[in-house]
Amino acid sequence: MNQKNIILKAENISKQYRLGTVGTGTLSHDLNRWWHKIRGKEDPYLKVGETNDRSTKGDSEYVWALQDINFEVEEGEVLGIIGKNGAGKSTLLKILSKVTAPTTGVIKSRGRIASLLEVGTGFNPELTGRENIYLNGAILGMTKKEITSKLDEIIEFSGCERYIDTPTKRYSSGMTVRLAFAVAAFLEPEILVVDEVLAVGDAEFQKKAIGKMQDISREGGRTVLFVSHNMAAVKSLCTRGMLIEHGRTIFLGDIDDTIDLYLKSSTFSYNSDNYIEFEDKNLPIQISRFEINSINSKGEFLKSSGVLMGDTIEFSIFVTVKQRYNNIKASVIITTSSGTRIVAIRSHEITDVVFESSSDFVFKAIVPDLKLMPGDYNVTIALAENNSTVSIKEECLGFSIVPNDVYGTGRIPKGNLFMYSEAKWELNQK
Amino acid sequence: MNKSDNIKEDWLFEIAPKNNSFSLNLDEVWRYRDLLVLFVKRDIVTVYKQTILGPLWYLIQPLFTSIIFTIIFNNVAGIKTGNIPSFLFNLGGVMIWNYFTSCLNDTSDTFKKNASIFGKVYFPRLIVPLSIVISNLVKFGIQFLIFIIFYLYYVFFQDMEVQLTFNVLFFPFLVVIMGVLGLGLGMIISSLVTKYRDLTFLVGFGVQLLMYVSAVMYPMVLLKEKLPRFGWLISYNPLAYVIEASRYMLLNEGEISFKGMSYTVVVTLLIFFFGLLLFNKTEKNFIDTV
């Protein structure tokens, strides 16, 4: 690897936070710290931190939001940082953008870093759009001269020409965001740190924003660190990915692998299990376990209840039997989180094969393309022999569909819907 | 993977837990000078939007304060102000005192007030208190104007003797001292407030008390004469020297000593640099505690 191109390097970055209210005890902790320091000893509170897991109750008041993060970014690379809520992504970006300092470790950079942690920082509602462009641009590190030279482009990109001399308090929220993003998009730092900006604006503007980001990294040759939950955006923008969990780097490598791993470890609103086991009731036939897995576009098997839109889903029903059964039927019924049944996959409807067995078996339904919109779904499974139901598990396991660019257009199907569909659009002149 | 050994260490900058506290990054502040100008502009433009009297509020407050001081301290308590009309004496004191307190008060909650913006984007935090001190200068300018108007009134209509000397040229120097002192104390307080909120209450109350030992509404000698046991209170107060000196320069009333002024300058610079160090240290991590 050509070492000359490494523009940013993080070495052992850790960040410790104190939990609870900062109040009683602060002064005594400070004094204790100072007392250790003048005796040349280590900070007594640096040792006690625990891994940051929101859901488990810890003993210590201090937690490590980040622990030993190491990475290098090459010039012109777009690094996607993904992870669940609370994994430490934002903390890392805050450290990168110098908003807060790390507890240990060092970040070395060969270029200026500008951050887009939240667009519109420092917008003053009383000032006009034009004045706010200057103010916001200066906050982000531009000089007045630089802004003036790009003013026309910024105004044009924002699409707010008409309102440019109106105070921004009269703007719609969408317009404010457009203007703010426009300012940020014309920043010219060597390294740009972006957090979730694409979650704003309408579809048209989002496309514009993603396009602009691509321009920045490809044509501008600039390095971008990108944090988002929008997997489609991450996939289309980034070249490499870093997966963070509980403040530690889990994976650093190719973006597709990172996303796969993220989906695998993903829990969404369900617990992390992609299976459920049922207790043995000693019945002659019963479901012992139910599993949901997904198979990605490369044919890899992912043990995860998070399924990327368009990927194959595999439902596995594990059955224990005590005697021979002829003509076993199984159904997988998918319901929305509110309980509406939307799809039923029934073995006896789909196939003429008569399933029979005298020993334990696994019933698998492999669904190549369940055209579900992103969201959480539940699964009800039922087992029948001949025409009588022997076991039914109502909404026993959930899975999530994760947004993806299924049409390959860079646009994700949106809306409060259950299904999407492939289609061919034609325009026929009469 | 361990490539760090042979990488040439020519980084542009590093982000580390604690920088040397003596690196004040003043060059960075200079790079952001445009932001400073824009902040000053914003402060001036937006403060009085949607008020009826607008900048008139700058005048009402010192005028009423001076009137009340004149009634209470000069007419009721009988404090003598030499050849100078008591009202003008008080107005001069209040005017320069106001500049100090507004610098102190506005800068002392820098971190708390700007937490949301500081939490999202980095720029030298020093820009904010600096811009406050500068935009307060505009407010001071307006108050100074009203002082001049009353000065002229007393000269033309009340036959006050004009006693202007070349000393008046040093007056801007005193304003700078006041600003730097307010900024220095403000930076110290704003740094400590991020952790210890108690200070907010102390400041509001403390500043009020401080006024009574800063020779705002009486000549410095008066306190030393009448309360010799507490004379040290005013002798160690750099603010008292500045206020006394400014009246000396504008009204030729009071005393000015080289010793007192050098003491003031030294204390001001000490407070300012201590504040700067503390402020720089705080800006790195305050967002976790504020």
Structure description:
The complex is a heterodimer of chains A (430) and B (290). Chain A has 430 residues and is an alpha/beta fold. Chain A contains nine helices and 21 strands. Chain A has helices at 26-38, 89-96, 129-139, 144-158, 173-185, 203-218, 231-237, 255-265, 347-350, and strands at residues 6-18, 50-51, 62-74, 78-83, 104-109, 113-116, 191-195, 223-227, 240-245, 248-254, 275-277, 285-295, 301-302, 306-308, 312-321, 325-336, 341-346, 355-357, 361-367, 375-385, 388-402. Chain A has a six-stranded mixed sheet, with helices on both faces. In chain A, helix 4 packs across helix 5. Chain A starts with 5 loop residues before the first strand and ends in a 28-residue tail after the last strand. With 290 residues, chain B is an all-alpha fold. In chain B, 67% of the residues lie in helices and 1% in strands. Chain B contains 13 helices and one strand. In chain B, helix 12 packs across helix 13 (258-283). Residues 1-7 of chain B have low confidence and may be disordered. Classes of the chains: A alpha/beta (430), B mainly alpha (290). Strand 5 (104-109) of chain A pairs antiparallel with strand 1 (13-15) of chain B, so a sheet runs across the interface.
SSE topology sketch:
The complex is a heterodimer of chains A (430) and B (290).
Chain A lengths: L5 E13 L7 H13 L11 E2 L10 E13 L3 E6 L5 H8 L7 E6 L3 E4 L12 H11 L4 H15 L14 H13 L5 E5 L7 H16 L4 E5 L3 H7 L2 E6 L2 E7 H11 L9 E3 L7 E11 L5 E2 L3 E3 L3 E10 L3 E12 L4 E6 H4 L4 E3 L3 E7 L7 E11 L2 E15 L28
Parallel strand pairs in A: 2-3, 4-8, 4-9, 6-7, 7-8, 14-21
Antiparallel strand pairs in A: 1-3, 1-5, 9-10, 11-12, 12-13, 12-15, 15-19, 16-17, 16-18, 16-20, 20-21
Helix pairs in contact in A: 3-4, 3-5, 4-5
Chain B lengths: L12 E3 L10 H6 L1 H15 L9 H20 L9 H23 L1 H4 L1 H4 L8 H31 L13 H23 L4 H15 L7 H7 L4 H5 L2 H14 L6 H26 L7
